[in-house]
């Protein structure tokens, strides 16, 4: 049994003393792996004090010295990364092969790419008689979810540190391995005391952090309902916010597009990490004429997906994080059955392994655009197919939810796809299967959030412009 019972405050590990714990289960076996110990408001106070004390020196050492530290953290994470991939895989259910690449290697690359911005990003510019300097926001509260734990921590902590901010991280209490590993990496890298503090906890600790008067910015990734609450609390002190929230992203398949490729990529996106991905494509919008062929291709693609133990080489789809997540997803499936949608694959009664929090990869066709399945984030392996008669209708359907995180467009020509992409209210639109670009801004329109992560855009979230005017 592992006890995740340490905070990392002011450069040292210290015992969590709150007395409250949360059990962590192996998502594939349901066995208890250990307990996360939850902190309290007094731990938050100590962490904020440490971050405040560390701020002047961290700003003074300059961006190149801060970048060197980021590289050292990346090196340390790399040396610890092998076991982390397995730990995250057990926690969230992602197949191990993918976990190494996506959950560990990719965020380490982001630490390095963020550090490299020190060489290319200009922090000073001129406009008429003004010199504008981009200055660090100050003490940052970073609150992260469980689905890509190291990735989401990295998307906040690395740019905030490079900018010259100091940070209190409150990672998800449901996926503790990544932040435990980061504590060791900070020690190995010799990060100055107080620059990054990690406080274990749940909503109680999160709220203490968000409302602390010495926190200047809240960078939050998580669900839209919690994000709304956090944003409202932060507004009390007019704190700067960055909100990376939920999604209900759509692929628009135009007439003449390569249906085979569109189906393959949509299935891969929707079922990655068992659907526990904020930017997953969870709606596929196809012309009524293409629907029968699309249906056939979808059933075939899902038929090939191997579901099972995330540790096995051949597994493509693992379990969900927890019994609660499985219950939430099953409720959506029961609802879809009652609505009478065309079940193409899976369903609430489909066969799954006897142990573990599995839900079969599920697809419903001809889904009503106003239904729960078409408008709400499921956060499980469930794809909804919607049909259109005109391209205008397809665009309206794609834009027909309150979210706007990601989208995809498929067409015979990239130019035609781009015309439709430019009509979509989504922060990221992939054309004809284009690959993910970590330097592009990542974030959402509408209820998917405020602000961006990734590359220069992610760095600028942690900087405030100060304009100094010269006479004459
Ligand atoms: P969640 O909203 O339940 O929790 C996120 C974090 O907020 C956790 O650390 C949690 O402890 C903390 N928290 C909960 N209540 C709080 C409160 N009242 N005050 C302060 N902090 C509080 O989300 P989750 O279940 O961990 O993650 C899944 C959600 O995250 C999905 O909706 C997904 O779409 C979203 N997400 C978005 C992105 C993105 O980049 N847009 C990325 C990953 C996940």
UniProtKB/TrEMBL annotation:
Annotated membrane-spanning segments are: none
The reaction(s) annotated as catalysed by this protein in its Swiss-Prot or TrEMBL entry are: an aldehyde + NAD(+) + H2O = a carboxylate + NADH + 2 H(+)
- EC number of this enzyme: 1.2.1.3
Domain Aldehyde dehydrogenase intervals: 20-468
Tell me the Gene3D superfamilies matching this sequence: Aldehyde Dehydrogenase, Chain A, domain 1, Aldehyde Dehydrogenase, Chain A, domain 2
Q: Which domain of life is it from?
A: Bacteria
Catalytic residues? Answer: 244
UniProt KW tRNA-binding keyword? no
Return the InterPro entries for the record: Ald_DH/histidinol_DH (IPR016161), Ald_DH_C (IPR016163), Ald_DH_CS_CYS (IPR016160), Ald_DH_CS_GLU (IPR029510), Ald_DH_N (IPR016162), Aldehyde_DH_dom (IPR015590)
Q: Does the keyword Oxidoreductase apply?
A: yes
- What are the recorded GO MF terms, alphabetically? aldehyde dehydrogenase (NAD+) activity
Which keywords label this protein?
A: Oxidoreductase
Q: Which family does it belong to?
A: Belongs to the aldehyde dehydrogenase family.
The molecule here is called aldehyde dehydrogenase (NAD(+))
Q: Which organism is it from?
A: Cupriavidus agavae
């Amino acid at each position: 049994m592992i006890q995740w019972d340490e905070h990392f405050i002011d450069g040292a590990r210290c015992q969590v003393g709150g007395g409250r714990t949360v059990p962590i289960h192996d998502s594939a076996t349901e066995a208890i792996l250990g307990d996360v110990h939850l902190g309290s408001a007094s731990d938050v106070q100590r962490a904020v004090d440490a971050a405040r004390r560390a701020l002047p020196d961290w700003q003074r050492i300059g961006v190149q010295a801060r970048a060197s530290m980021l590289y050292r953290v990346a090196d340390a994470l790399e040396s610890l990364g092998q076991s982390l991939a397995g730990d995250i895989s057990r926690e969230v259910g992602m197949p191990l092969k993918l976990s190494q690449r996506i959950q560990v290697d990719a965020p380490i690359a982001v630490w390095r790419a963020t550090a490299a911005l020190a060489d290319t990003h200009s922090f000073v510019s001129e406009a008429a008689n003004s010199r504008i300097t981009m200055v660090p926001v100050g003490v940052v509260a970073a609150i992260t979810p469980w689905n890509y734990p190291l990735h989401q921590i990295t998307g906040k902590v690395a740019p905030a540190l490079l900018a010259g901010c100091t940070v209190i991280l409150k990672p998800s209490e449901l996926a503790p391995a990544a932040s435990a590993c980061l504590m060791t990496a900070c020690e190995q890298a010799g990060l100055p005391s107080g620059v990054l503090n990690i406080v274990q906890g749940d909503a109680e600790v999160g709220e203490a952090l968000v409302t602390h008067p010495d926190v200047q910015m809240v960078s939050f990734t998580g669900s839209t309902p919690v994000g709304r609450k956090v944003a409202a609390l932060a507004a009390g002190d007019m704190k700067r916010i960055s909100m990376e929230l939920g999604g209900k992203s759509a692929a628009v398949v135009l007439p003449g597009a390569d249906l085979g490729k569109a189906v393959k990529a949509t299935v891969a996106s929707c079922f990655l990490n068992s659907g526990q991905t904020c930017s997953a494509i969870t709606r596929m919008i196809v012309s009524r004429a293409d629907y029968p062929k699309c249906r056939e291709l979808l059933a075939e693609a899902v038929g090939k997906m191997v579901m099972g133990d995330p540790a096995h080489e051949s597994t493509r789809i693992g379990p969900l994080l927890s019994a609660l997540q499985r219950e939430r997803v099953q409720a959506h499936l029961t609802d879809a059955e009652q609505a009478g949608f065309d079940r193409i694959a899976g369903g609430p009664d489909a066969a799954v392994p006897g142990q573990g929090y599995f839900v079969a990869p599920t697809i419903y066709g001809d889904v009503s655009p106003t239904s729960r399945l078409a408008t709400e984030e499921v956060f499980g392996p469930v794809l909804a197919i919607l049909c259109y008669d005109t391209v205008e209708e397809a665009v309206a359907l794609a834009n027909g939810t309150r979210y706007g995180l990601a989208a995809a467009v498929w067409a015979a020509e990239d130019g035609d796809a781009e015309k439709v992409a430019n009509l979509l209210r989504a922060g990221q639109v992939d054309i004809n299967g284009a690959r993910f670009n970590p330097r592009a801004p990542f974030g959402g329109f509408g209820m998917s959030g405020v602000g961006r992560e990734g590359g220069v855009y992610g760095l600028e979230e942690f900087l405030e412009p100060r304009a100094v005017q010269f006479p004459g």
